[in-house]
Structure formats: C-alpha cells, structure tokens
Amino acid sequence: MLAAAAISTTAESRRREPAPTPPPPSAGGLVDNINGYMFDRAGNVTRFNGLLIGKDGRVAKLLENGDKRPERLDFRLDGHGRTLLPGLVDAHAHLIALGRRAIALDLGDALSPAAMQAELTDYARTHGTPLWIRGSGWNEAGWGLGRLPTAADIDAAVADRPVVIDLGEGGGLLANKAAMAAAGINAKTADPAGGRIVRGPDGRPTGLFVGTAEALILAAMPRMLPRERDEALVAAQLALIRAGVTAATDMGTSIEDWTAFRRAGDAGRLRLRILSYAAGIDPLLAVAGTGPTPWLYDGRLRMIGVALVADGGLDTRGAWFKADYADAPGEHGLRYLDDAKLRNLMSRAAMDHFQVAVDATGDAAVAQVLGAIEEEVDTYKGDRRWRIEQARFVDPADLPRFAHHGIIASMQPGRAVADRPVAAARLDPARAGTGAQWPALAGEGVPLAFGSAVPSAMPAPFADLAAAVTGGQDGTLTIAEALGAYTAGAAYAGFAEGRLGTLAPGAMADFILIDRDVMATPSAAAETQVLETWIGGKRLWVRGHEQNVIPLPPAGDAVDATR
Question: Are 183 and 216 in contact, with CB atoms under 8 Å apart?
C-alpha cells in the first residue's frame, strides 16, 4: 500500500508541474554577408546584404545593414562578401536537344571542315551503335566557305552510316547520302509547304533540309528511347544549373518531352524549373487540355502555352524578309504559315487562355506575326502577353507596333551578335543593320525577355549579358537592364512574375553566387564564373565540387544495336 501511495503521489505531483515551454521555432536559413542585387523589368536595382530563406524554400526577407539577424536558424552561410543574384531565367531554350548535344556528338568546337570531319570520324569509330549518328552544334559560318554545307562534307568522314547534323534553331538539318537514301529522298522528292530541300544545279538534293523539309529526314530516324530522353534531360539540367540558370522556358515541348519531364518529377530528378510551351496545338491539347496546367512538383513544371514558328534561320536563307537576300537575288526566305493558318492556330490556343509565342527571325515574319496579334487582340481581351521569339530583324517602322499591345520581345543577344558575320554576308547593309534591336525596343517601352536558344550554343548566360550590353544597335542597355531582362523580364514573359526571377519576399529562393561584382565591372561580364547555384533554398551545385546533383535514371530500355 505504501508503494502504491508513493507512486500515486509522484504521479499527482507530475500532473501539477507546468508543461515544458517548447523551443522557439526556427526562422529558416540565412545567407549573410553578401553583395546582393535584385532587378525589376526596367532595370531598377534593389541592394541587400542578407537573404532569409523560409522553411518552404521561399524568400522570407531581404536584410540590410542594421537589420537584426535571427538567432535560431536551420543554417547560416557566410557569403564572404560575394555577389548574389537572382537565379537566371532562360526565356528561350530547347532542353532535350540541349541534353542530346551534351551527351552525344557535339561539333561546336569544330572550327574548320577538317576538324569537323576528324571529330565525326572518331565518333563513328568509337560508337558502333546506334546505327544512325546525330550531331549538333556545327556552325560553318566562320569557316569562310562561301557556300552552304552539303552531304559531301559529311561523306568525306562517314559515308557508310546515316548521319544527320542539326545546324541549330532554324538552320535546318544536314544529312549525308546514306541518310537521304534511308529516307527515300531523291531528285523527284517535292518541297513540302513551308520547307525547302536545297538542291544543286542538277536538281539533286545537296543534303540540306530547311523548315518543314526537316521532317522528311526526321521521319526516317529512329525515335529516342525513353531512357535516352531521360538522360538528355539530366544533362540539360546540369548544363544550365552550372551556368547559373535556375528556370528555363522550353520552346517546343513534344508529348515525349513532357512525359520525360513528368518522369523526372515523379522520381525526384527534376531540379530545374521548366516553363513549357507545346510544339503545336495537338501536343498542347493532349497535355494541358482546356487551359494552362498548374505548377507541378513544388513549382518545378508548368505548361503555359504554345510555340509556333513563322520562318526559318538566317544561315540557310530560311529567315523570311521583305526584300531579297543580297547574296541570292530572288530569294526572300521561307514563310512557314500563311496568314489564315497562323491566325487560326493562335486563336485556337487563345480561346482556352493559353499563351502564344511565335518564332520570327526575318522582318517579313515579324511583321506577319505583329499583324496577326493586332487582329487577335480585338477578340481575346485581357492580359495575354503575346510573345515574338527571336525578333532578330525588325523593320524600324514596325518597332512601335510591339509596345502598342504590350507584345513581348523574347530575344537572344548572344546568338544575334555571333551571327553578325552571317548577316553581313546574306543581307544588304541597311537590312543587316536592323538586327540586335533590343535597345530600340526597350526605348519604345517593349517588355524584353532574354534567353539563349540553346542548343544553338551551350549555355553561357553571362556572355549573353555581355552581348546585350555591348552588342546592341542604335543604342545600348545597362547591365542592370540586361539582367532585368534575364531575370524578372523572362519570368514576366511566362506569367511567373513574383515567383521566379526575383528575390522579393514570397518568391522562390532561387539564386546564384558569382565570382565578381558584375554591376561594378560590366565590361567583364562575359568572364563571370558561377560559384554556387541554389534552387528552392537548397544548394544544388558548388564550383569545384562537380558531383552530379541529379541522379541518372535507372537502367531500362536497351539501345537497339540495329538502329
């Protein structure tokens, strides 16, 4: 009885003791002692020296000198005075194609025909499968050939296997004789609407396929296996994250691409944030149905609209101009869609509140898209944010038409500047001088969004920024304006303002640490090195620690050696 009474008394005393006070909750994480910059679309700058990150992976607060720092934190990182910027948002990319270039035959460093042929020969020798060889990154513009590339340039290295080389966005495909034979292409093959089979004096195909003619070759090529597509997505994410890009706009997402994005999200392999624009109306409706999808995978993926294409690239005279090419009298380029078709496609997307982005390089194509938008705005009211991608060559008379309806100019400054020798060779001086018009568009109050058009080149956003500052025609941009277009402007272009491209409280804590104060030394912007990349308040990549931050997909589909 005494023992029982003692136990009862002890239990009673415990009930009378006050409950312990729970520890104060953590304030999240803090990146402190930094030289922080944030930009709006107009290039206005916000400075800060501390970034408080909430447990939800969003920005909780920007701190300045004199602001009290929380004492209880999950982590604290001393930035040692390094410069911190919002994560870059690439307004125009092709993710699976970028990944394919990263893991397959990349000819981007082939600076002569002999170098290209040597790389192709070596690749064929060391890669017995798949049977078809597909390369990318080849740009013969600097070789001084004075002609377009032909199948013979490939056949000199590999003639016994089908070879197809992607010449970059709008540039077309170059196929060797074996690939053309496998596709059944000969002198009697007709040019499809919106495309051109480049032919020699004898009428035979030279191997270059531009615009919709690319499909004649692609239809004969084996399709990428799901595992190959998954590996390409891993490689693309790594390439962009290492370059400081935390969100990318995928222009031309196929159903197969979307399912690869979803597989990555389901498996926890989706690190990059992806704004997706479907490759036409059919995949748009198949994926998203009756309107833009919600953000998936903790804000990693959304399909927002459709990507259409009005013309081709300058290299192969596919860009559609109002006047003849100077080096090919009588040729104006390729018009991919007639006015009625373009407007019907735009209307079909807009009726379900999908955003419309149309790729237009030449001044005639830009004018066509402007005219289509001017008709559509009378029917589809509200904030539509019509986009023109590339907008490489704009007739000065058409510049004010962008601002009138708030049309977004989604441009790639690095590519535009790199292509100036091609423009000088293809166009008369007056027409060539209408390229790189981002300063003039900005002066008209046009919303700018900057990107890279990868994989035309591998990701190099700070080189793009340097081109934006130094390479514009009829004026210049400040580095703050250029960074605004590569962060807040690119986010706005995809209806992601307040979420991406900024470090305002409530935004995703996506940011980078770089090796210099790019605002103080804009002339050295191209040499900037990304030191760390953070997405959602988590450090994903650190220079010097090159371990994969994204696991490869599990072994699955075996490659068919007969392909």
Answer: yes
| Two domains, one topology: 131-218 and 226-542 | no
- Fold of the domain spanning 131-218: Diaminopimelate Epimerase; Chain A, domain 1 (3.10.310)
| Phi, psi of 360, deg, nearest 5 | -145, 120
Q: Which of 122, 117, 159 minimizes the C-alpha distance to 138?
A: 117
73: phi then psi, degrees, rounded to nearest 5: -140, 155
Compute the distance between CA of residue 463 and CA of residue 192 in angstroms, rounded to an integer. 37
Contact present, 208 and 198 (Cβ < 8 Å): yes
Helix/strand/coil percentages in the chain, nearest 5: 35, 25, 45
Extents of the domains making up the chain: 131-218, 226-542
**Cα Rg for the chain, rounded, in angstroms?**
26
Nearest to 244 by CA among 35, 549, 30, 541: 541
CA-nearest of 431, 365, 355, 445 to 399 is 445
> What's the one-letter identity of residue 32?
D
State the Cα–Cα distance between residues 548 and 269, nearest whole angstrom.
11
The DSSP line for 263-319 is HHHHTT---SEEEEEESSHHHHHHHHTTSPPPPBTTTTEEEEEEEEE----TTTT-S
Dihedral of CA 71/72/78/84: which sign?
negative
Say what the pTM is.
0.90
The C-alpha angle 546, 451, 230, rounded to 5 degrees, equals 50
Residue 19 has phi, psi (to 5 degrees) of -65, 145
DSSP string, 452-496: --BTSS---HHHHHHHHHHS-SSS---HHHHHHHHTHHHHHHTT-
Position of tokens 């700058």?
Answer: 45
Instruction: Name the CATH superfamily, with its identifier, for domain 226-542.
Output: Metal-dependent hydrolases (3.20.20.140)
Token pair for residue 305?
Answer: 């609209």
pLDDT tens column, 222-253: 989 999 999 999 999 999 999 999 999 999 99
Nearest to 89 by CA among 497, 447, 458: 497
Asked whether the beta carbons of 369 and 408 are under 8 A apart, the reply is: no
CA distance 559 to 130: 7
Q: How far is CA 468 from CA 181, 206, 441, 472, in A?
A: 43, 36, 13, 6
Name the token pair of 478.
Answer: 């400040």
- Are the C-beta atoms of 165 and 154 separated by less than 8 Å? yes
* pLDDT digit string, tens, across residues 20-40: 555 556 678 999 999 999 999
| CA separation for the pair 196, 212 (Å, rounded) | 7
d(CA 492, CA 499): 9
Question: Which of 345-374 are b and which e, b meaning 16 or more Cβ less than 10 Å from the residue's Cβ?
Answer: bbeebbeeebbbbbbbbbbbbbbbbbebbe
CA nearest neighbour of 390 among 97, 92, 140: 92
Q: What is the pLDDT of residue 117?
A: 93
